[in-house]
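Example (one chain per record):
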Amino acid sequence: MPSADNNLLQPGRIAASSTKPYQNPLPPLSEHTHTPCSKSLDLSIYIAPNSTKLSVLERVVSAKMPLGERSGDKSESRYCGVETDFNDDMPQVLHFNLYTGSFDFVVAPLMDPSYRPSLAQKDGLGSGVLPFAGSDLVLSPSQWSSHVVGKISSWIDLDSEDETLRIDSETTLKQEIAWASHLSLQACLLPAPKGTSCANYARCVNQILQGTNNIQLWLRIPLVKPDVDSIDAKSVTLDDSWESWNSFRLLCEHHGQLSVALDILSTLPSTNSLGRWFGEPVRAAILNTDCFLTNSHGCPCLSKRHQMLISGFFNHSIQIIISGNSVHPKASMDANNNSDKDSQRHPLRPYLDYVGYLYQRMDPLPEQERFELGYRDFLQSPLQPLMDNLEAQTYETFEKDAVKYIQYQRAVSKALLDRVPDEEASAKTIVLMVVGAGRGPLVRASLQAAEETGRRLKVYAVEKNPNAVVTLHALVKLEGWEDTVTIVSSDMRHWNAPEKADILVSELLGSFGDNELSPECLDGAQRFLQEDGISIPSSYTSFLQPVTASKLYNDVKAHKDLVHFETAYVVKLHNVARLAPSQPVFTFTHPKRSEHESNQRFKKLNFVIPSETGSAMVHGFAGYFDATLYKDVHLGIEPSTATPNMFSWFAIFFPLRAPICVGPGSTLEVHFWRCCGSTKVWYEWCVASPSQSPIHNSNGRSYWVGL
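Predicted structure:
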């Protein structure tokens, strides 16, 4: 995986370009289209004798095709696997499941399930060849890597009271992982923990993870959580499978190569409970054939809730694995009757067809989502607007956000109509100042508002970046605005305006509203605004929300220092679970009511975790803003009121040095400060309940915004 340094893009609310995130797909195989109970395609090829089986298999895996085509989606969720039983003829396993079955990869046992190290020693076979599923030479390295997930023996119990079983389990686990690593497998599926204690199991897995950096370990976890209304709280804690996962990952210190494979059962927990998992490192969902219902044609289908869950998995790059035996014989029989007489259709193909059908009926990714794909869960440093000058590419990205400028134009239009009655429209000229004019998009929006309303404007475009001023001059000349627009190359805080403004327009908002120092900048500019002047925006409020965000936490943790845990990041949140509704934090109003009003702030927030959610892990807080531009014209990114199709801002993420576990129905108490010094502004934050965290970023030691 790329280092966390590559994950940190500089600079931007959003960066102008990004490195693509690491993709770890298990590639697909055949050019088929999955539809429920569709006729099998004629993919027959001459099957050579066993001596040439490998070359035939190489021909099969050279044709690659996922579940289907969905515009813009290139994620791992396009690929579907199948869980198989032990077979020491691996070429045949791949041929049957990949060619005949059209699956993209297999989850296959690596070791004969009857093998026990202690029995082998008693039989005098301790120095013999281990009973693996064939030599590494039976498949090519790329076939092992791309089409096989190793399935660790399900009998192992590393926390057994039986010492012989425990030692056998430890030995076998290490032997199988070592063999998988030798084969260059991308991942191995670990059996679910047995019983309530998993300390020794986790200890051995953690030892293995410390010694390898090229394999993912998927811990099998059944998707179970009892209904809180029908069971007492004590047993919820014991039976909620999330608790089992949480115990295991805590023992393994949140290791980045430890992931989850969810076993989907016929009964699903509540929607809130399911939502927790989208912030966890879930790599696969194992869908047993027992989950499927039967439609009127005798074919497999899923309940509406299961369909919604599978769609959620598709949207979060989670691969589906079909497991179990066919329980829809009619569908398999009809498929075989309709297939080529010389070929035998895979008994699980109808289930694969149905999963493909669910995938293909999903809506295409909108254009904005496709643009943002590369930014999903990528940490970026926020802008330092007063310390740094933006680059042309960053300006260009912001200027493409048409929605934002439409909102500004609407706000200016309303302000002009309020400021100038119709009877004075031809005689009165409004002085409008754009502070932080950049390359001119707000100047253009203001002039378009004047044209739209029939009002006269005199515009001052104030910009501190000398490079952007060059572009501004070129724009004014190109558009013929010389008589209307005056360009001022200066920091708004130090400019002495020749006259006072009726309207002050700025776009200094950050992802958290005030985190790009809009209050400090507008304080400096307020002196050249008329007493009854209008500021656009007139106010803005920051919002905070607790989230489960395992990937973000591990990306920060990879830096192995305090500084990165005390830094706020701009990020396109995707693989996160939002644990409670967001709450308002700080509000700033312009023009300021009093010159002596401080920009320092403090807020205590109490978030209640819904009981039906179950326990959850808080890795940090997502921050948003909502701004009132003028009267009823607003823009923002707070989820419940977000301006549609606007992409200039992603959320901001405040990490916690140590994640906090919250119980169902519990209250999470958070303290948040905005601190101001003579040369910088910074945030401090901590959790006070249910457990105490340190105060993060004390005195702005790790992260600040320079004045």
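Caption: The longest strand covers residues 616-630.
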